[in-house]
Amino acid sequence: MLELVMHSIFLVLGLITVGCVLLITVYLVISGIPAIRRIGLVPFLFNKTWASTAATPSFGILPFILTSIYGTAGAILLGVPVGFFTAVYLAKMAKPSVRAIMQSAVSMLSGIPSVVYGLVGMLILVPGIRRLFNVPDGSSLLAAIIVLSIMILPSIIKVSVTALEAVPKEYEDASLALGATPVETYFRVSVPAAKSGIAAAVVLGVGRAIGEAMAVMMVSGNVPNMPSLFQSVRFLTTAVASEMSYSSGLQQQALFSIALVLFLFIMLINAALNFFLKREKEG
Question: Residue ranges of the alpha helices (H) in 112-194?
Fold first, then answer.
């Protein structure tokens, strides 16, 4: 009887989760389609000019799409290697005392609010970029990439450590018995065995990077320019966050359309990663 009750509870909770996703999807589709119909899909996605409050408004989000892609890719290129090697060190090499200290630091890093990351970036990172690269303004795509790469570290490290610790010890013992060194064992046995968990960590990092708004808005300059490393830019998330409070009419509908594009973008990335992981397992 107890097992049936628990099964029913878990089933209901799972259905609630699926229902929330479906509700969000339907709401975004209903709210975002009208603006795309009025503006046109091709002009909306590929026009380079966003001037939502001009006398003759223009609603082109190509700069936002490219900025989000470049910013996320840059954050992944910087953050994933650091997070991955840190996870391997913590899970397999670190002494218990060092591991306890580092895991506490990682947990603290994950608990810092986004606005604090943005504030520190504004006060330290932005002036540093301006002086180091001798540019007029340090608020740029580079600043956003650095902040995002730091913000995704806790997700990548925690999930990767959990995946590496779940690898059966017998795998490593067999590798060591065959003459492999500990480092070879970690990278040729443990990491491949935990690759699905590490991939899940990367997916979480991608989601965090794409979905971040406040910290990015504070360090990127929030200007709708085409993406350039040392130029102020605006992401898909910051485009919605910066204008939604005073928007109305077609402008508001266009912001919902941006949210729909962002939602579909995240779904495509997750689907692609899951597809490649599944094909790898079957192969």
Answer: 114-120, 126-133, 141-151, 153-165, 169-177, 182-185, 191-193
Q: Which residues pair with 58 in a beta bridge?
A: 51
Rounded Cα–Cα distance for residues 254 and 150 (Å): 31
User: What is the longest distance spanned by two Cα atoms in the chain?
Assistant: 75
Q: Please write the tens of the pLDDT for every residue from 179-188.
A: 889 899 999 9
Using a 10 angstrom Cβ sphere, with 0-12 exposed, 13-18 middle and 19 or more buried, the burial of residue 66 is middle
Q: Are 45 and 69 in contact (CB under 8 A)?
A: no
Are the C-beta atoms of 80 and 153 separated by less than 8 Å?
A: no
Q: Measuring CA to CA, which residue among 70, 227, 223, 231 is closest to residue 135?
A: 231
Decide if pLDDT at 281 tops 70. no
Query: Between the CA atoms of 151, 273, 74 and 255, what dihedral angle is there, to the nearest 10 degrees?
Result: -80
C-beta of residue 235 within 8 angstroms of C-beta of residue 68: yes
Distance CA 166, CA 280 (A): 20
Pick from 121, 279, 138: nearest CA to 214: 121
Summarised one tens digit per residue, pLDDT across range 108-143 is 988 899 999 999 999 999 999 999 999 988 999 999
Measure the CA angle with vertex 83, ends 211 and 216; round to 5°: 30
Taking each helix axis as running N to C, give the angle between helix 153-165 and helix 141-151, from 0 to 180 degrees, rounded to the nearest 10: 30
